[in-house]
Amino acid sequence: MVNAIIFDLGGVLIDWNPNYVFDENYFKSQEQKDFFFQNVCTPDWNENQDAGFPIALATEEKLAEFPEWEKPIKDFYGRWVEMLGEQIQGTVDIFKQLKENKALKFYALTNWSAETFPIAVDRFEFLQWFDGLVVSGEENMRKPFPEFYQLLLNRYNVKAEEALFIDDNLRNVKAAEALGIKSIHFTTPEQLGLELQNIGIY
After folding, report:
1. What is the tens place of the pLDDT at every residue in 75-121?
2. pLDDT number for residue 184
3. Cβ-contact 168, 12 below 8 angstroms
4. Which of 3, 131, 140, 202 could disulfide-link 196, Cβ–Cβ 3.0 to 4.6 Å?
5. Which of the four pLDDT bands, split at 50, 70 and 90, describes residue 201?
6. Of 31, 55, 78, which residue sits at a domain end?
7. Torsion over CA of 170, 171, 174 and 178, rounded to 10 degrees?
8. How far apart (Å, rounded) are the C-alpha atoms in residues 202 and 196?
9. How far apart are CA 154 and CA 160, in angstroms?
10. What's the rounded Cα separation, in Å, for the pair 200 and 1?
11. What is the pLDDT of residue 37?
12. Region 174-192: what's the mean pLDDT?
């Protein structure tokens, strides 16, 4: 019996993509771009800021390590707002319909820097619909570490076996399932709608 739905935000409800800044016109070659994201501003590095490391210090350290990559390093957070796309309307529509079920509670569990999350709060009205939001940068922990999921469960008195978790990152989905939380690996709003129908809550 599901009585709590836990949403990831980026990639599920909100479109965030570095390619909006680092497009085909940014680097001289695809090889340069691949090197930058594989060795300089890597996903792991970005997640470090999501877990609470200061953006200014992270940028300073990265510039010291790779001074030849000054412009793209500075632009990673300097142009971060441009990486933030629109809400994923199909998922927001599903969320709105689910909200009509008064027996359900809704939470967000997101890997997001505390320094940039206020930008999203100002931009996206649906972030006010949640009964609780847990932001990695505010808690100094992140997915897929189990203590981050457990923090949400404890804070809002949610039982793992009564929760449903939705995330576009399979790594995060598997971590939730390891804690006994039923999960959906999100790919599209249409796929999410079908899976929720199969569960019987949409």
Report:
1. 999 999 999 999 999 999 999 999 999 999 999 999 999 999 999 99
2. 98
3. yes
4. 202
5. very high
6. 78
7. -170
8. 5
9. 10
10. 10
11. 98
12. 98
Instruction: Look up the CATH number of the domain holding residue 106.
Output: 3.40.50.1000
Measure Cα distances from 33 to 39, 40, 64 in Å.
Answer: 10, 10, 19
Domain count, the chain: 2
Distance CA 93, CA 91 (A): 5
**pTM here?**
0.95
State how beta strands 163-167 and 182-185 pair: parallel
Q: Which residues pair with 75 in a beta bridge?
A: none
Nearest CA among 163, 135, 189, 154 for reference residue 8: 135
Full residue range of the structural domain in which residue 144 is found: 4-15+86-199
Distance of alpha carbon 166 from alpha carbon 196, whole angstroms: 10
The gap from C-alpha 53 to its chain's centroid, in whole angstroms, comes to: 16
